[in-house]
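User: Predict the complex.
Assistant: Input components as received:
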Amino acid sequence: MSAKTKSNWLTYTVVILLAALFLFPIFWIVLSSFKSGSEMFRFPPTFLPEKFTLDNYRNAFEKGNFGRYFFNSTLVSVLSTILTVIINTMAGYAFAKYKFRGSNVLFIFFIATLMLPLEVLMIPIFHVVKFFKMYNTFAGIIIPPAATPTGVFLLRQYFLSVPNELIESARVDGASETRIFFSIMLPIAKPAMSVLAIFSFMWRWNDFMWPLLVIRDVEKYTVQLALANFSGQFSVDWNSLIAMSVVSVIPVLIVFLLFQKQFVQGMVTSGMKE
Amino acid sequence: MKKIKKKQGVTSLEMKLFPYLLILPNLFIFATFIAVPALFGAYFSLNKWSGMSAPVFIGLDNYVRAFHDVKFWQSFGRTLVYVLISLPFIMGIPLFLANLMIKEIRAKGMFRAIFYWPSMISYIIVGISFKFMFGDNTGIINYLLSLMGKAKVEWLTQGSTAMFVVILATIWARTGFYMVTYISGLQSIPLSYYEAAEVDGANPVQRFFKITLPLLKPTTFLVLILSFIDLFKAYGLVLALTKGGPGTSTKFVVQYIYEAAFDGKREMGYASALSMILLVVMATFTLLQFKVNKGGEIQ
Amino acid sequence: MKKILSLTLVFTLILAMSVGCSSGDAPSQAAGNDGSAHESSPAGGAESSADPGEKVVLDMLWFADGAETEAMQHIIDDYQALNPNVQVNLLEVPYDEMTNKIMMSVVGGEPPALARTTESILSACYDATLDLAEYVDDIDGVLAQFMPSIHNYFVINDKVTALPTDVTANGMIYNKTAFDKAGVTVPATPDDIWTWDEFVTALEKVKADGGVQFGMVIDNPSHRWSTMLYQFGGRFLGEDGPAFNSPETIQALTFTKELFDKEIVPKSTWLGGEDPNNMFRSGQVAVHLSGNWMMTNYRDNIKDFEWGVTYMPKAKNRSSTPGGKQLAAFGGSGVEQEAVDFILYATSQEANAKYCVESLFLSPRLDNAKLDYPFGKEYFEVFANELEHTVPDASFDWGYPDFAGVARTPQNEGMYEMIAGNITPEQHAANMEKVLEELYQ
């Protein structure tokens, strides 16, 4: 066996082992979701469901208008992601490639706010949302979370690794800043933008605090808000919670599968003189 | 020469304005919805406020109280332990996986999805799942151990093992996110560098340390800062997993602040002061890291 | 391959959404909110309203453990049929967030018309609720219809902040199959009630011969454990100051610690967050110190063994710890009178009886003391009996303003430390005494 084949085998083994470890909890949860209420907590636990049942899913769906909640979550996540990617890419590029007055201070400030636990700021945030007439609207959960410091940070770091020569030579050729951004930088940033799209969708999909703060009407509830209602005062409705948790992960997975190919592409290096 | 200088003169105004235009939308939203409330938070930290009635100005009393608050600093210490132990794993394991994921393996996409999937699930669900699995008497892990003839472990009943489970759950839940971040960073390294190195006779280990790591610096820095902040702010996952237990063994600083704000006598003013202290501490750490790493730029 | 997988997932999702959309179209989820400008009002089911222009909309913040939501929806439907110009929206909020949601809505100027509360939620929000005495002529007559022992849960500082919809009693749920197997019989009448020592002996026998791993699970060290505290003659609060640090309390604490040390109660439930409900459901435990709210859950989920309800043991006294929920209305909603009207309706004898029977709850109304439950009638009689023999200390403590908020976390944490052996019962009693002093300042 050549050295290359050997290392290949090793690689595959390691990957498969790790994948198994990562899959185990999800696998266990999915299996449990198909067990009936009395079987779920049986001890000793059973692996495969004795009686495969969709009751948990059926009950969970009947507990609330989950079709609507899924629609809401999807709408909010998609719109917010589009907004996020646009404005964060712009800001990330600015911080990476321009040395303007206050850029360092501003950037540090951006990152600093990542450190604030938003829960404690709930009341002032509520007032601001109300002031802008965004209370109980989808706009209120689409717009405010879109200015993610993480997103700006991500794009900034990505742009930092883009050689400055690309920009310089474009300027020498007489291109305007706008043109450089749209025609050159954006295509190069596609991998990072795809990553941000995946992340942003996931963040908005899993948002709990913003919808809790902003939304009043039941028809506007998102999936996470509805899921939290399965935890009552005395007991957790595990059966429905587990079933709906499984379902709620699917859209995020779809987005990942759709976008992950994008950021696999390497950076375009043509047109560069070394 | 002269021609180019003239062109630079014409575009320099655009060059000056353009960055401001670029950051404007982000800045506006951010200032309105985060910065302004944060400033309010800073103001409230100087007050005694229950959230319902009017705030009463008390100057720096909250901060004085915070410095004497033994329980606060204990939770701070616990958080530090948690962060310092988790950080190497949270930075190392995703990097390792990312390297594997850009090799020529079949079903790459599927494996990537498998590793990324845990970070897609909301923290609350992760916490509940791990609690479910590691239950002393009803959990599957202890059952598997018993099948293998080993004694059951009191996973969540003892402080030290509870911390272990929390760290494990954190690593499981966050690896995918940072792995994806690393992959995008790895992809930005031109293949030509590697080819040149191979021609020069460098082996994979040398290639990794001499090419990959240095050129990956922006991404590594990103992961360092983000994971540091993320870990320090751990709340949702821990709350769902252990509620800070057993006792207070896994009660971290954000949970402490949250309880000060919303439990008991609802001391929002004091909680705001604690948040400010947390902010200052973390900002200092972060600033240091920025200085040391030169902002994560490749030199 | 990936494309197929993505397509399958998308298809599943669309299927899920359409299944979700077709079910559960309750009228309360149809369009409508408090009339302020809003976007994208979904179509939903049309309301048969006599005069759409005059419709009064009441937003009711609601949390539930399960069956009550449907039961309340039926009450709402009845009310809306009687009052076609009123619409009541059930807005479900997670229980843990209810106090915050109320607080934020009130402070932010968007108070809800109504909310479902517990005594601990009321003790945090009573400043914001209406004083029902100002809206009802004969408030004393109304109050007299409800159990006197729980009045202080909703009459706070002389303000009638809410009216009760149900009352809960703690009680002993036991694994009949295990008890039968071990040959242990439970007390059949209140006269046969065990003392705690006798009870522990019985539990040890069931643990040994009944095929269970543990004797008992207790839900939590605060509300549920306080039942034991009262049974031993201890309490948290006195008229003028804390009364926790007493010989009776220390006896209760020491006894409790022994239960854990002897592994009659598993440490993992209090220290490790293991769910006592799940443990009992899995058939590993002989007895669950819980309450009447578990009736529906266990009826639906326990199929592997037989279970029942029996009387709790006594030490110095018999006692339970009353709980329950109320409906409160809030100032500044613009629909205060209509909100109060709904509360009066929902807590009136007929409506309340219907609600309690459907959700398997005990009624707080004196005239609904014996309801015709479709399930577990004998059990409810036991619970009602427990409530009748409850010491007044129980509702005094839990109804004291701010008590739950101030006491709960320190009590929980102190009990953990005591069970773990880090502090003694005497130390915990002394610590709690200090914490409780805050309430008297």
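Residues 15-51 of chain C have pLDDT under 50 and may be disordered.
Let me know if you want any component modeled separately.
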